[in-house]
Design brief:
The structure holds two protein chains of two kinds. Chain A has helices spanning about 1-10, 15-50, 70-80, 180-185, 250-260, 280-285, 325-370, 370-380, 385-405, 415-435, 440-445; strands at about 55-60, 85, 100, 110-120, 120, 125, 135-140, 155-160, 175, 190-200, 200-205, 215, 215-220, 220, 225-235, 245-250, 265-270, 320-325. By secondary structure, chain A is α+β, with helices and mostly antiparallel strands. Chain A has two domains: about 1-45 and about 330-445; about 55-325, no CATH class. In chain A, α1 (about 1-10) packs across α9 and α8 (about 370-380) crosses α11 (about 440-445). By secondary structure, chain B is of the alpha/beta class. Chain B has seven helices and ten strands. Chain B has helices spanning about 45-50, 75-80, 100-110, 115-125, 145-155, 175-190, 200-205, and strands spanning about 5-15, 20-30, 35-40, 60-65, 70, 85, 160-165, 195, 210-215, 215-219. The two termini of chain B are about 25 Å apart. Classes of the chains: A alpha+beta, B alpha/beta. At the A-B interface, α1, α8 and α11 of A face α1, α2 and α3 of B. The structure holds adenosine-5'-triphosphate and magnesium ion. Magnesium ion binds next to α1 of chain B.
């Protein structure tokens, strides 16, 4: 039967090639469209991944002007793989059993933080500036303190061989206000010696690192601890408040480690490491962060001993909000989504068109072969065999056309191609059924 | 094989009107004889022939072939084994060669290729076509040659009833005489029942009996 079909096709090559080309062109269009859709989708994915989503710890109203008191557990949440334990402060034994353990570190990269401590002496003598207490700032990048940004009138002069990348490192380096260099003119050759003191509460822990309890109370101490640290000046900055010294964040982190165990971070932000996990991240973060809202009531954070130390959750104690800046992302993805939607519509349209044209061509092909079909029946071929022979012959053309037309794109999407082939097959069957349902006597008349 | 008409009527049912093309026709055709049916255009000759060929069944009455009404025949089998028709044109499969056309009915009968080819050659010789025609397509043959191939196919089919609807309508007198001679020889030499519908008095003259039709009935 296949042999017979092939012979017939060979004898009427123009017709066969026409059907084949028709199928090939349709398949090519369907596949090319799919390829473009997929490229667009990949592009979308890429763009989606490449747009940075920054998350910033703020007060409940969504602000952080660098004066926020961010507890160390928040930093741990951002940077430590070991989960932070949350306690229920309404429970009888508040801190015995954590109600939740959480780490966001896996979702974040480029954690930016800022922390500072007062300085009381420089190079051994008391130091005060006109602006008030001098502070030693640790920053992980310039934007951690807005005062250092050019748009706020700040100009940084780096000594040779240094630039802002020092903040990403952990060397004992610093930049100071211009005025201060004049006062301690050493051309950046020698180190400055800082010292200061702190009386921020320190909560004792046992040898296992767990908080220490005596008679159901935390053991808290308010030590006045001196610290010393020497830093090399590698640059100066103008403008600003003339009272701040900036060093890499890890440096001050170490100072703090020696000074007092509970650090107060002022600025904390990070970038999402995988945008596709945004929703997941948002859900996890919602456990301990509010969504910023301008009308929210500021909590009196930082005033409680516990607060600066332990994460605990009650309704009224959500003290921080997390500002997740995904505006860029959604503006952009809206545009891309529109274009993807448009492509989808075009695809549906093309598939419908392929079905219609398949139908028409299928019908036409049967019409053109009416005489053969009639003759076959006249010499006693059964309808089923006429149908099978003809359908086989036509489907060979169509399938071959699809195979050739779709080869370049690896027959993707096979389902749309199948829909097209199926439409052709249905049209063919329908036309044949209609044609053969008539008594032969009527067909003869039509033909002559 | 006998064929007889028993009060046969046939109506074309259209959307708007019904045409009674054959109206109460009866006749017994005898094997071994060549009949001619003549009549004016529209008198129902083609319709009657088609009924005998089993292309449809009569609306009233019966066409009885080999003692069995066409209503009770498996009509594919009837057309394959009992009756074959030759029309004025359009008799051949346009995409098959002369030889393949002649072999087509043998293929249906599941005859082996080799045997079928041998038989096809015999039949081709019988209608006086040279071997050069075997590989040619119908489109490249003259009208007379085409009809001869059609007859050869009918011969190969081996049916004992042969119907022809104006088989010489497009042919000149020499060709016509040739075709009629072959058709008559089928009746006289092979014992077939041959029924020819024709306008041509020269054709009718060759027949053993002439039947005339008018408005769907004999006169
Ligand atoms: N398919 C049809 N539908 C309706 N009426 C038809 C059909 N075929 C034929 N007729 C009608 O039936 C009648 C007989 O037609 P038929 O073809 O049998 O005539 P005919 O004798 O073969 O004529 P001709 O010599 O011109 O071939 C005519 O009146 C014709 O109009
Ligand atoms: Mg007629």
């Amino acid at each position: 039967m296949i042999k017979k079909a092939l012979k017939t096709l060979k004898r009427a090559p123009v017709r066969a090639v026409a059907v084949l080309l028709f199928a090939a062109v349709i398949s090519m269009i369907i596949c090319a469209l799919q390829a473009s859709n997929e490229a667009e989708l990949r592009n979308y994915e890429e763009v989606w991944q490449s747009v940075p989503i920054t998350v910033t710890v703020t007060d409940p109203t969504g602000k952080n002007d660098g004066d926020l008191l961010i507890s160390p557990w928040v930093l741990s949440l951002f940077t430590d793989d070991t989960p932070v334990k949350f306690y229920d402060d309404s429970a009888e034994k508040k801190y015995s059993d954590p109600v939740e353990e959480l780490s966001l570190a896996a979702y974040l990269k480029d954690v930016q933080s800022m922390m500072y401590t007062p300085i009381s002496t420089i190079n051994g003598t008391n130091y005060t500036s006109a602006a008030g207490t001098t502070m030693l700032y640790g920053i992980s990048s310039l934007p951690c303190d807005k005062q250092l940004l050019p748009e706020n009138g700040c100009e940084i002069t780096w000594y040779e061989g240094y630039d802002e990348s020092i903040f990403a490192g952990e060397e004992l380096l610093c930049i100071v206000p211009e005025g201060m260099v004049e006062r301690y003119d050493n051309g950046g050759e020698a180190d400055l010696y800082f010292s200061g003191r702190s009386n921020i509460p320190f909560i004792h822990r046992d040898e296992n690192g767990e908080f220490l309890w005596v008679d159901g109370e935390l053991v808290v101490e308010f030590p006045k601890v001196e610290y010393n640290c020497s830093l090399k000046i590698v640059g100066t900055y103008t403008a600003g408040d003339e009272k701040s010294i900036y060093c890499p964040y890890p440096v001050i982190d170490k100072v703090y480690d020696e000074l007092r165990k509970n650090k107060i971070i002022r600025v904390l932000s990070a970038t999402l490491s995988d945008n596709s996990r945004l929703d997941e991240f948002r859900e996890k973060a919602s456990y301990c962060f509010l969504e910023p809202s301008p009308n929210a009531k500021k909590t009196a954070w930082g005033v409680s001993v516990d607060y600066g130390t332990l994460p605990y959750i009650t309704e009224k104690n959500y003290s921080y909000a997390l500002d997740i800046d995904d505006n860029n992302l959604f503006d952009l993805s809206a545009i891309l989504e529109d274009s993807i939607k448009f492509n989808r519509t075009v695809t549906v349209f093309v598939v419908i068109l392929s079905v219609i044209s398949g139908f028409l061509v299928g019908f036409l092909m049967v019409r053109r072969r009416k005489r053969d079909i009639m003759l076959m029946r006249m010499v006693g071929e059964s309808n089923a065999r006429v149908y099978a022979g003809f359908a086989l012959e036509q489907m060979i053309c169509i399938i071959l056309g699809i195979v050739i037309g779709g080869a370049y794109y690896k027959w993707n999407p096979i389902n749309n191609l199948a829909i097209f082939a199926f439409a052709y097959f249905i049209a063919l069957s329908l036309a044949l059924a209609i044609f053969m349902s008539k008594e032969l006597i009527k067909n003869i008349k039509e033909d002559e | 094989m006998s064929i007889s008409l028993n009060n046969v009527s046939y109506s074309y049912k259209g959307k708007y009107q019904t045409v009674r093309a054959v109206d109460g026709v009866s006749y017994d055709f005898e094997p071994g004889k060549c009949y001619a049916i003549i009549g004016k255009s529209g008198s129902g000759k083609t319709t009657l022939l088609s009924l005998m060929a089993g292309l449809d069944v009569p609306t009233e009455g019966e066409v009885i072939i080999d003692g069995k009404s066409t209503k009770n025949w498996n009509r594919n089998r009837l057309r394959r084994d009992a009756v074959s028709v030759i029309y004025q044109n359009y008799n051949l499969f346009p995409l098959l060669t002369v030889q393949e056309n002649i072999m087509y009915p043998l293929d249906l009968k599941k005859m082996s290729k080799k045997k079928a080819a041998e038989l096809a050659i015999k039949m081709r010789e019988r209608v006086e076509l040279s071997p050069a025609y075997d590989k040619r397509l119908p489109a490249h043959l003259s009208g007379g040659e085409q009809q001869r191939v059609a007859i050869a196919r009918t011969l190969a089919q081996g049916c004992k009833i042969i119907l022809a609807d104006e088989p010489t309508g497009n042919l000149d007198s020499t060709n016509t005489a040739n075709i009629v001679k072959i058709l008559c020889s089928l009746a006289h030499d092979d014992g077939c029942t041959v029924i020819i519908v024709t306008h041509d008095p020269a054709v009718a003259e060759q027949a053993d009996a002439v039947l005339q039709m008018k408005d769907g009935a004999w006169i």
